[in-house]
Design brief:
Elements: H1 3-11, H2 41-51, H3 53-57, H4 64-71, H5 78-91, E1 97-101, E2 107-116, E3 121-128, E4 135-136, H6 142-148, H7 162-175, H8 179-198, H9 204-210, H10 215-223, H11 227-232, H12 237-249, H13 252-265, E5 267-283, E6 286-295, E7 298-306, E8 313-314, E9 326-343, E10 348-352, E11 356-365
Antiparallel strand pairs: 1-2, 2-3, 3-7, 4-5, 5-6, 5-9, 6-7, 7-8, 9-10, 9-11
Helix pairs in contact: 1-7, 4-5, 7-8
């Protein structure tokens, strides 16, 4: 993991967006960590009762904002903003605005929903990305292979160096109030640190032997192996997760070809073209964070800005962006190849090359005026 990214992930994201996902779900190899959010169905049910059946009948839960309310756990004033945005788009559906992305082979970005209340900004977008076919069995030259196989690029394995561990230790100390929980987390981290000397901390067999994971955790991860992975005896966490990711991403024929190369050569590389919305946007030329959550209807984007406290973000916009009649925003669409490299008896890696970037403009009216 990039050191600057790790620092931002651990200390620069609002508390309500922090939920670790070290070894779960699909890996999105970008310049930021996709931060998982907690679904709170009880809160959504209570909100439906408060709003009445009419809102549901009007398609409130079909909107990006409506689905985001269900998925995001918020405990601050921004929750009221999101609920107000969901109600607004349900009561008065917005016409989608489509922007072509000529730099990305006919891809398009559609603004489906927007909400600017003079203090915060929420967007609901859909990225229709056109990607070329995967390249299975890509031949790496020595220089590229050396770049890919860095410890900080290990797939789905974030705390792989002493520097990573020290940063995480400081974050835990600063953000864990309960003494018992603090002791438990630090003990776990100490065991992780010891693995750096005992052997490869990505090797589940070593983790189990060192007591860094329980037998239950070990068995759970091993049970998630694909049929091909289990038959080959995969026991490195990164390889298990990358193998599962590629089985989902590739066609059956492509996945079979990948394993043919892997078993023949002991290692294999797959190149996938990535197109995504960046984790920053421009609003009236001011650079602010674009925190994202994927829902079935599209992608929910919440603008966030730095606070006076170093490393903290807030859902309220900077003062110069508040109270305007409209906001001129530019989302950053980025893309380029992602190299997924896996060894048959060792780690897996991912290297993202963001070769292209396009600023996509939208004008957002003040919903409160």
């Amino acid at each position: 993991m990039d050191r600057e990214v790790l620092s931002e992930a651990l200390g620069g994201v609002a508390d309500r967006h922090i939920e670790a996902a070290l070894r779960e779900g699909e890996f999105d190899m970008r310049k930021h960590i996709r931060l998982r959010r907690i679904a709170v169905l009880a809160a959504a049910a209570a909100l439906l009762l408060a709003m009445g059946v009419t809102a549901y009948a009007a398609g409130w839960l079909d909107s990006i904002f409506g689905q985001a309310v269900q998925k995001i756990n918020t405990n601050d004033q921004a929750e009221d903003r999101l609920e107000a945005a969901a109600a607004a788009v349900s009561g008065s559906p917005q016409d989608p605005e489509v922007q072509d992305l000529p730099g990305f082979d006919g891809s398009r970005l559609t603004l489906k929903e927007s909400y600017y209340d003079g203090q915060g900004l929420l967007l609901g977008v859909d990225l229709d990305a056109v990607r070329p076919d995967p390249v299975v069995g890509f031949q790496l030259d020595g220089a590229l292979l050396e770049r890919i196989t860095q410890p900080n690029l290990t797939y789905q394995f974030y705390y792989s160096t002493q520097e990573d561990i020290e940063r995480l230790r400081e974050f835990i100390k600063e953000n864990t109030a309960d003494p018992a929980e603090l002791d438990a987390q630090l003990t776990r981290l100490d065991a992780q640190e010891a693995l750096l000397e005992a052997g490869d901390p990505d090797d589940l067999d070593i983790c189990l032997e060192a007591g860094n994971i329980t037998r239950e955790e070990y068995d759970d991860t091993m049970s998630r192996r694909t049929a091909r992975g289990a038959a080959a005896g995969l026991h490195y966490a990164s390889a298990i997760w990358l193998d599962g990711f590629l089985e989902r991403k590739l066609t059956g024929e492509e996945y079979g070809a990948f394993w043919d190369v892997l078993e023949r050569d002991g290692a294999a590389c797959v190149v996938l073209e990535d197109v995504h919305i960046g984790d920053h946007m421009l609003a009236e030329g001011v650079d602010i964070a674009a925190i994202q959550t994927d829902v079935a209807a599209g992608t929910f984007v919440e603008a966030q800005a730095k606070t006076g406290e170093e490393g903290r973000l807030t859902a309220d916009l900077p003062a110069e962006l508040q109270g305007l009649d409209e906001l001129h925003v530019q989302l950053k669409v980025k893309g380029g190849p992602v190299y997924y490299y896996m060894t048959l008896d060792g780690r897996a890696y991912a290297l993202s090359e963001q070769a292209e970037e396009q600023l996509v403009p939208f004008t957002i009216p003040n919903s409160a005026k």
